[in-house]
């Protein structure tokens, strides 16, 4: 493996990097130039039974699994008074169900349920300041429960939690970025497909690019995203939205090394099987509607 690593390093340095790109971050060199050389040194034996890879210690490596994504809400400065009784300060991150329970307890504790109609909650000064617009101060004196909950969530900071199997949960502010698939024109009306934000879902753009290259037999390119230090886009020749969508939706990625087939005399190099599908939920992918009918290339 050390010899392979050295070969990939020298090949990338000699044939991939342009003088105009120097100086170059090592992380960028590895991701964009060197890793693609490493992938091209792998091959899949004809008729191989694709099973998860086996390490030197004899344990099977886990296949790629998409992260579990959960929408969360952070207590904002405006809504903080509603959460003080629950000891939740500004910045506390909560599940939607936790928000609902805390607000319900607040309403009950302050006896704000409308005595004439329990579907409504009476607005007190705190709820007024936290949830109502200025134009509503003199007009709204009660809200339905659902409206109360939706307004509370709307005044909070939306977050999301990513949980990858075997890793500590990661919480980030804002909306999660969707994987973006689009088609652009290059040169004399030639079309290319661009795929962005793969890193958000734990996907390596170099692996995805190589998998697509093998699927459609078209050239691919990795390009740094403007304004981003650690993200790249995958560019592949032609309108490949249909194929990219099929790759991102469905079953697991399987990776194999030669240790899994140490009795096969036909193997002289490590082996990688490219993914059939990554099983990313459709709602986290945008641009699929732009695919050619029948998946044909233009």
Automatic annotation (TrEMBL):
Keywords: Initiation factor, Protein biosynthesis
Record-level GO BP terms: formation of translation preinitiation complex
DM2 domain segment(s): 71-155
The keyword S-adenosyl-L-methionine appears for this protein: no
Gene Ontology MF terms: translation initiation factor activity
Pfam families: SUI1, SWIB_eIF2D, WHD_eIF2D
Gene3D superfamilies associated with the record: SUI1-like domain
Superkingdom of the organism of origin: Eukaryota
Name this protein carries in UniProt: (spotted green pufferfish) hypothetical protein
